[in-house]
Amino acid sequence: MLTDNYNRVINYLRISITDRCNLRCRYCVNENLQFKPHDEILTYEELIRFVRLCANLGFKKVRLTGGEPLIRKRIPYLIEEINKLNGIDDIALTTNGVFLGEKIYELKQAGLKRVNISLDTLKKERYEYITGVDAIDNVFVGIEKSIEEGLQPIKINTVIIKGFNDDEIIDFTSIAIKWGIHVRFIEFMPFGDPELWGPSKIVRSKEIEDIIRTHFDLEPSINEHKGPAKMFRLKGSDGLIGFISPMSTHICSECNRIRLTSDGKIMPCLFSDVEFDVKRLLRGNAPDEEIMTFVKEAVKEKPHRKYELGQIKKCQRSLRNIGG
Ligand code: SAM
Fold first, then answer.
1. In a domain, 6, yes or no
2. Whose CA is nearest to atom 11 of ligand 1?
3. Which of 96, 123, 147, 184 is deepest in the core (most CB within 10 A)?
4. Can you give the residue range of the structural domain that contains 77?
5. Is 203 a pocket residue for ligand 1 (Cβ < 6 Å)?
6. Under 8 Å CB-to-CB from 39, ≥6 apart: which residues?
7. CATH number where 255 lies
């Protein structure tokens, strides 16, 4: 079991398998869109080795994200290989869902257990405005097919942004009931251009919860996958809603994760620009022990708490780049 300097057990690895994405979400793209050359992106063989070494250190859970993970070729192969590794008992995917419908069968066959789908609006025009692409119907198909394939639980992640979708909170709660899935409301983090996507866009979880309580009865529920979401069951249904509150609650005490960027940097903390270049070791034929020691050192660099509430500074990388 790997612990950091503050006795948090670190057993969750989030991997951005590509920095490329088929969408251009306005609040996510905070830099000149320049993709890394392909040869800078970790190969599947490098990723599998890295996950194996992390599993040796006690990591149990892996999430594949991006960029958009489903635009990388042969992702079922990667899932299958990670699934074979001793110690990894949970493999999940975070996707925008556009290609999910066409890929869900082979993903499940490869051993995918769970999927998180990012969706910030249920309205076609708004979807096109925020993502730059007319693809909301594909996302709905992806959700339906994931339900049909029996992936459990299916989680929709919705970033609530003032003036954009804060009038859809009840609609999103209703689909949790209708589809018997989890909808998690995530506080917008102002990583981007302060003029356009700054702190004035934040809607705090408490405000969202108050709006929902005017229409629905909420019963506290445990978060079976640990993590920072505060979960509630919608009374009389299978649907759950949750709140992830990086801007109004110190979620750092619950942190159990490190991130690996697509270009092979370990990021001990989402809110810090500190990175550890593990690609250098992976490509330099470093022995397993050296890489494992390097991971332990990165984990020891996890800060206790990196930011003051409501005051996230601009990160060098966007979430697309870090792996949201
Ligand atoms: N393409 C995949 C997807 O859409 O889920 C994975 C990458 S995306 C960067 C992961 C998540 O980060 C999405 O749910 C997105 O809404 C979220 N995200 C990006 N920028 C954010 C921000 N500034 N504040 C809160 N969430 C953000």
1. no
2. 324
3. 96
4. 12-322
5. no
6. none
7. 3.20.20.70
